């Protein structure tokens, strides 16, 4: 009897053996109903058998061994559903891996017992095909499992960010009322100003978190262009940030109107992130210089700050357009990563360019180039 035929003829025994092992050794199985424990096993066993029986050239075998096999329609359905279901009920990746290890062990254990009793010969090539088939399903299931976990995390971040906006708005409203009081001491005014800066920073972080969540969930970043004066928008943002950071020295250099077709909301977001980064990561108190210029069909938005240069790994992230968590200054509460990622998405959405020049002597300058039309 061929190994594939054995799996077909002993489907129920294999399933029972696998369920028994899973219930005794995988804690996550206790979260499932008995029917859910068996879900997808029959379909996955059928897929394994089909893979073992299908004709295969040497080139196809090599491609499969490297994980590059092209799956036929429906071939990965059960494994995808299995990974998604396990993520939904709270399995961890080790528990999911244990299930496939247990399935492999259950089949091999039953085959060994029956082969001894019936004097069956083990075909080495069949064993290779079997292991390839079950490994394919394992990888498919783990990939879908991880996607589901990531989606859940992103939804959680989105909900958290959205829900945090309301209490922050309430705090900001109370601060606005308190600022109108004429009975505040200088110390109380100073404390109120500091708390206002903290609320503003928290709002910026939440907005960035929501933006990142939308990007990760696949909704992407929409760009709605309209005629905009870059100089006028820059002046507005600088004035707003000066109120939020009264101790900082903000300098705006502009030649006059610089017109272009851009998304004004995204433009405000870009400028706020860049200037805030300069205020927080540059020399305490500033100065931070913002300059606007234009040449032919290109407009330039530059932000310069004094202080220590940014690290080489951040420069590399900017050049590659791939942003990850960075340690940065140990005295800072967070890193450049999230804000720069949002900025890069906005720049890309406008078909522009972002570059940075940073050294100990001259400080740091971020340069954004945007097509005007």
Task: Describe this structure as you would to a colleague.
Residues about 325-335 have low confidence and may be disordered. By secondary structure, this protein is of the alpha+beta class. α2 (about 10-25) crosses α7 and α7 (about 95-120) runs antiparallel to α8. Strands 2-4-5-7-6 form a 5-stranded mixed sheet. The protein has a two-stranded antiparallel sheet with strand order 1-3. The protein folds into 3 domains: about 5-155, Globin-like (Orthogonal Bundle), CATH 1.10.490; about 160-215; about 225-370, Histidine kinase-like ATPase, C-terminal domain (Heat Shock Protein 90, 2-Layer Sandwich). It is elongated. About 60% of the residues lie in helices and about 10% in strands. The protein has 13 helices and 7 strands. The protein has helices spanning about 5-10, 10-25, 35-40, 40-55, 60-65, 75-90, 95-120, 125-180, 185-215, 230-245, 265-280, 310-320, 335-350, and strands spanning about 225-230, 250-255, 260, 290-295, 300-305, 355-360, 365-370. A hairpin with a 2-residue loop joins β4 (about 290-295) and β5 (about 300-305).
Topology at a glance:
Elements (H helix, E strand, L loop, with lengths): L2 H7 L1 H15 L8 H5 L2 H13 L4 H8 L11 H12 L4 H26 L5 H56 L6 H31 L9 E4 H15 L5 E4 L5 E4 L1 H18 L6 E8 L2 E8 L6 H9 L16 H13 L3 E7 L3 E9 L2
Parallel strand pairs: 2-4
Antiparallel strand pairs: 1-3, 4-5, 5-7, 6-7
Helix pairs in contact: 1-4, 2-7, 4-8, 6-8, 7-8, 8-9, 9-13, 10-11, 11-13
